[in-house]
């Protein structure tokens, strides 16, 4: 029989957060090992429950949610997203500009699929949340990575972005607050990105899914609130701000210079129609979440569980010789650097395998986030303080052995 092969479209598509190292961890669990998983920002798995009012609302609405909805989504939750855009000072958004999806992920893939032809380039941050690179590749486009500068708290390097714009560049992806670095971008940097988009007629794809997971009293500015003469697509959802990843409730908002984007918007509408609609129970939850008590603020306040765990994990990691880490201002992750003089890692996936085998701790290697050098890794700081202390202790022990090699 002829071998059945995957599509060539997948040749450059990669999603290492759920990649081969996780597969190895699964096998080890089947053999009876207990693994500490620092690999995925899945809040529920660490006891961060969804707000009860959202859960109750889902249960109450289940009976009304068995039919298809409008392709873009139900009116009431889209209206609540519209109010949210007003709170974030994004101007001129109508109900028609709002699309609900099965998480932001579905809409991210849709937004690039509707846009790209073979050879079109999209500027994507490095490091990035790898769905972006994968989605651009899958759509036939070419991801071109721009540098986020660790020395500058992982802010995007504007000069590098400028250098990488070509006549084929269609869009720029901005992940703010950032996964995996925890950076929160300054308004100055955001304005500089907008200026480049304006000059080169780029669409701005703004992934703002962590916009309420902010520490130390920081506030978030939506890119789309800073201009109306550039086309913005802003992505958000319930997964992180409302600890509801499993409900698969996300949205995307088209704003700014819409007049010249009619054809693209037609493409978005076509793809939204083709997948019929987002899951209806998840749609109902959006309205309740956005209008309800914002309990995320309790978790990220000075005494909040997430703040305490961030502080502890950062302290424990940076106490290890040769490990440095920009302290996250936002989101759920740390992206530490291993000094290559002390840890001469050639293959960071191999490094992750070894850590897993020796210490039963699962991390994601930095190259999985399109980091160009094998000297970073990502951890979540979601486990409770006892488990964090245990896991950071195991990482420290592993690195001690690595130094003696
Ligand atoms: N964007 C970023 C930056 C993320 O970190 C994630 C999930 O981790 C997503 C998008 C996907 O979110 P959703 O659960 O809404 O699909």
How does this structure look, described?
- There is one protein chain.
- The chain is of the alpha/beta class and 405 residues long.
- The chain folds into two domains: 148 residues, Aspartate Aminotransferase, domain 1, CATH 3.90.1150.10; 240 residues, Aspartate Aminotransferase, domain 2.
- Helices cover 37% and strands 16% of the residues.
- It contains 13 helices and 15 strands.
- The strands form four sheets. An eight-stranded mixed β-sheet has the order 2-9-8-7-6-3-4-5. It has a three-stranded antiparallel β-sheet with strand order 11-15-14. It has a two-stranded parallel sheet with strand order 1-13.
- Strand 3, helix 5 and strand 4 form a beta-alpha-beta unit.
- Helix 11 packs parallel to helix 13.
- It is globular.
- Bound molecules: pyridoxal-5'-phosphate (PLP).
- The site of pyridoxal-5'-phosphate (PLP) has 13 residues, from helix 4.
Give the topology, please.
Blueprint: H1 20-30, E1 36-37, H2 52-61, H3 75-87, E2 98-102, H4 103-113, E3 121-126, H5 131-138, E4 142-149, E5 155-156, H6 158-164, E6 169-175, H7 187-200, E7 203-207, E8 231-237, E9 249-256, H8 262-274, H9 280-291, H10 296-300, H11 305-318, E10 323-324, E11 333-334, E12 337-338, H12 348-359, E13 361-362, E14 364-365, E15 377-380, H13 385-403
Task: Tell me the strand order in the biggest sheet.
Answer: 2-9-8-7-6-3-4-5
Please give the number of β-strands: 15
Rg from alpha-carbon coordinates: 21 Å
Could you state the order of secondary-structure elements as H and E? HEHHEHEHEEHEHEEEHHHHEEEHEEEH
Mean of residue pLDDT values: 95
Bound molecules: pyridoxal-5'-phosphate
Q: What profile does the largest beta sheet have?
A: 8 strands, mixed
> What's the level 1 CATH class of the largest domain?
Alpha Beta
Helix residue percentage: 25-40%
Q: Which regions have little confidence, pLDDT < 50, spanning 5+ residues?
A: none
Distance between the termini: 48 Å
CATH topology annotation of the largest domain:
Aspartate Aminotransferase, domain 2
Helix count, per DSSP? 13
């Amino acid at each position: 029989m002829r071998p059945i092969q995957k599509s060539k479209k997948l040749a450059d598509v990669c999603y290492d957060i759920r990649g081969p190292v996780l597969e190895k961890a699964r096998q080890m669990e089947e053999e009876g090992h207990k693994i500490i998983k620092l690999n995925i920002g899945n809040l529920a798995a660490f006891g961060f429950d969804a707000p009860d009012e959202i859960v109750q609302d889902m249960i109450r609405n289940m009976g009304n949610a068995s039919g298809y909805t409008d392709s873009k989504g139900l009116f009431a939750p889209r209206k609540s997203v519209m109010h949210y855009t007003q709170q974030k000072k994004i101007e001129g958004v109508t109900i028609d500009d709002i699309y609900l999806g099965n998480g932001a992920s579905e809409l991210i893939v849709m937004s690039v699929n509707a846009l790209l032809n073979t050879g079109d380039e999209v500027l994507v941050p490095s490091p990035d949340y790898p769905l972006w690179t994968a989605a651009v590749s899958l759509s036939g486009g070419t991801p071109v990575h721009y540098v986020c500068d660790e020395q500058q708290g992982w802010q995007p390097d504007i000069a590098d972005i400028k250098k990488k714009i070509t006549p084929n560049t269609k869009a720029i992806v901005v992940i703010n607050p950032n996964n995996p670095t925890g950076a929160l971008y300054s308004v100055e940097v955001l304005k500089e990105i907008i200026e480049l988009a304006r000059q080169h007629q780029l669409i701005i794809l703004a992934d703002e899914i962590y916009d309420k997971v902010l520490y130390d009293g920081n506030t978030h500015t939506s890119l789309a609130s800073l201009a109306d003469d550039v086309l913005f697509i802003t992505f958000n959802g319930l997964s992180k701000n409302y600890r509801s990843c499993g409900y698969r409730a996300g949205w995307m908002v088209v704003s700014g210079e819409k007049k010249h984007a009619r054809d693209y918007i037609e493409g978005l509408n076509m793809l939204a129609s083709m997948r019929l609609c987002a899951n209806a129970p998840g749609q109902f939850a959006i309205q309740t979440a956005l209008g309800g008590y914002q309990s995320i603020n309790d978790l990220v306040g000075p005494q909040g569980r997430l703040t305490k765990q961030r502080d502890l994990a950062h302290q424990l990691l940076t106490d290890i010789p040769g490990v440095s880490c920009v302290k996250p201002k936002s989101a759920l992750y740390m992206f530490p650097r291993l000094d290559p003089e002390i840890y001469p890692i050639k293959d960071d996936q191999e490094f992750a395998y070894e850590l897993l085998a020796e210490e039963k701790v699962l991390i994601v290697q930095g190259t999985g986030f399109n980091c160009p050098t094998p000297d970073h890794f990502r951890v979540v700081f979601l486990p409770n303080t006892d488990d964090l202390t245990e896991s950071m202790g195991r990482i420290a022990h592993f690195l001690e052995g690595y130094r003696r090699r």
